[in-house]
Amino acid sequence: MEYTVGQRWVSHADAQLGLGIVVDIDGRRVTLSFPAVDEERTYAIDTAPLTRLRFKEGDHVATIDGVELLVTGVIEDRGLLLYRGTDHHDEEVVISELELNAFVQLTTPQQRLLNGHFDRNDDFALRVATLDHLDRLQRSDARGLMGSRTSLLTHQVYIANEVGKRHSPRVLLADEVGLGKTIEAGMIIQQQLLTGRSQRVLVMVPESLLHQWLVEMLRRFNLRFALFDAERLAEADGDNPFESEQLILCASDLFQGQDTLKAAALAAPWDLVVVDEAHHLAWSESGSGEDYQLVETLAARSRGLLLLTATPEQVGQASHFARLRLLDPSRFHSLEAFQAEEQGYRALSAQVEALQANEIPADLPEDVDTTEGADDIIKQLLDRHGTGRVLFRNTRAAVRGFPERHLHRYPLTPPEQYTHAVVDVDEKLHPERPFIDDSWLGFDPRVNWLEEKLKSLRPQKVLVICASADTAVALEHHLQMRAGIRSSAFYEGLTILERDRAAAYFADDENGAQTLVCSEIGSEGRNFQFAHHLILFDLPLNPDLLEQRIGRLDRIGQQSDVEIHVPYLEGTAQEVLLDWFDKGVNLFTDSCSAGNMIFERFKDRLLPELNQRSGEFDALIADTQTFTASTREELREGRDRLLELNSCKPSVAEPVIEQILADEQADTLQDYLESLCDSFGVEHEFHSEQCLILRPTEHMLTGHFPHLGEEGTTVTFSRDIALAREDLRFLTWEHPMLVEAMDMVHSTELGNAAIATLKLKGIPAGTMLLETVYTVNCVAPRELQVERFLPLSPMRLLVDARGKDLAELLPHQRLNDRVEKVKKPTALAIIKQVHDDVDAKMRLASAQAEERLAGILGAAEATMREELGAELARLEALRAVNPSIRDEELDHLRHRIEECAIHIQHANLQMQALRLIITT
């Protein structure tokens, strides 16, 4: 064998290595690089188990850029092969063998079978099942939305479905507090990644929310973001650190005064940038802050942009305009023009209210067809509404389903130990902090009160939140060791796994903790709505933090009223703040999305009162009440009904939710996973209803099984169980374990060749049947989403001795249940005898499959042109009345239609599996 650097060879001892490249020849040794597995192997030249890869005219080859060529000629030049061929545009291309894709199917099922390499019939069945499931998932309208560990709320699913399917989405998510903007963003990110529309995502959040986002993305969406902080960046090498990861999470203020970091972030390519708490970005007509300028530049260079804020437009119209300006600066170019447009939107909102009351307003826009019914007129107005495509805002009033909130106040006498003079407001609100040990537990009356209250509430679950981790740890230890109350602590010093265990212990109904004692992070990112008692051991100064604390229990799906218990020390800053929140803002019993704005308005008058209540405090309460009432009224009056309708369309979301739930309620996924485990040698054991324990074994087919830990993994198929038990993996068809395991089956040879015998009445013994499975092979960029119109489309044929297809008479499952295993020596003898017959039947089967393929491709192109063409026509018509539809969006849709058509026309058949069956 003669080797030349750059040649492509195949290891027939280990086909899983993919296509190798000769990189070095040294005396009697040759070294090959295998890019598919990122390995190098060195062989003795005389005994190397290598075969030279040579394609011939008529073969299909794929390049490293994903371009598929039909080979029309082969030239050898100084030991290297050059392939001449035509691409999917029918243009002639010449490539070197160096440009061949390393991920190539090196042997067909027919070659394996006829060479005596075949698998168990169970593996064959697994392969067929995998192809069927992949095909079904590619066709699903719920694709990209199945895998989230969420409650599938209508407004969240609608937004994720609407925005996640867009090319380069640029939207503002502005739902009120408690409606789940982070979840909506996660669902959009997950769908963009799963469907290939995005690959690189940058998320920027306030530092206090870093852990919440990290946990939410991992636990709810299986998205493993890399956390970039000053420490990580200091350890980075000379290359751009922002190009080292695909998914990056960082604090918004990480770049403050750091020009080098800014340049690095701006130099990296991003498909999607996400900014939480976007109302903090400073902008005015006269200038903008450093943070705004950075996001503005990132927004201009990134295709997609998600901005999150709970601050309503009425709180600051200029700030609202500044956020919209980031999404589309050409559309939102002038604050004055925007304010004029807003008046028109208010008029439309009033018209919608009239239409909902079955009244047809006389002043409807001229281009609206008033002969239609009220519902149809509203639909026309929705399409024409100015910010409806870029802004989504759901309100608690519109969504509904929230519980009532009740405040219970418990005045306690301050102990002598807390009467020393303290100037710092923080220490006045949290008087235990100056103590370097836990001695305060012995005299703080709130501790004894907490013991008695928890005992009186038994066995009901109680969530306790306090400001600091030290306070939470001390309280939990006291309750557990001194008071005999089952409890668990949840604070920032724990690892993510430890937090999961603490939350799971709290969620366990039978043997779990009665109470979970949390530091401030307990008000972030976790769902404890199975409890309805909340004890606030202290109060935060920030109203938004208080709303977040209450929001852990006050959520959609809460079955009971939320009981809020607040112990406080009389005559101290604690009572002053409680009175202001309760009597001034009414924040305990009525959610307020403008809480922080109200605090900023009265902060200069409130803070001195915390140091020493004065005779002015009653006036402060009265003024706060008046301002809060007017603010709430303004928010109610300013509610944009048209925008709310456009932010949640149940008729669109509910069929998607029904499809997701139908997939989950069937046993199909659990049955399929157990088949996977059997084939790959993974042990599976019953844990409880809809839950399994998976463990690796020493006899696994491959060195690892995706996302299976060394100690094993407990999984559940139930969404309800997963929401209550965050320590369990929630397996869906889109969980990375399933996605990667299915890819392992699809992309390898497992189960693609088999041999069996079958007893059939009326058919002579020794009759040969050939069961073949083909799929459609369409090589196209993922972002085109061609599989939406042209999925795998498995074609099964069962060819008899005369070439007749018996697939309908003998369905796969029925056949699978009846076939029997053939011993290896017998199988090899059979194969030797029927070699020529198999070739003949394969030609017949392939001819029939090719006939079917023509119809499939024609139907796929027609469906694609009909669906995308209708969407294009709709958006082109609306472009005239709704400038929020971007030219880029229309251009991409036109490009997608033409590119999809080209790729569909050049799709071909791929044989996926072959089974030889001999009747007995």
TrEMBL record:
ATP binds at residues 175-182. Residues 162-330 form the Helicase ATP-binding domain. One of its GO terms (molecular function) is DNA binding. It comes from Parahalioglobus pacificus. Interacts with the RNAP. Has a higher affinity for the core RNAP than for the holoenzyme. Its ATPase activity is stimulated by binding to RNAP. Pfam families: Helicase_C, RapA_C, SNF2-rel_dom, Tudor_1_RapA, Tudor_RapA. This is RNA polymerase-associated protein RapA. NCBIfam families: PRK04914.1 (NF003426). It comes from the Bacteria. PROSITE patterns: HELICASE_ATP_BIND_1, HELICASE_CTER.
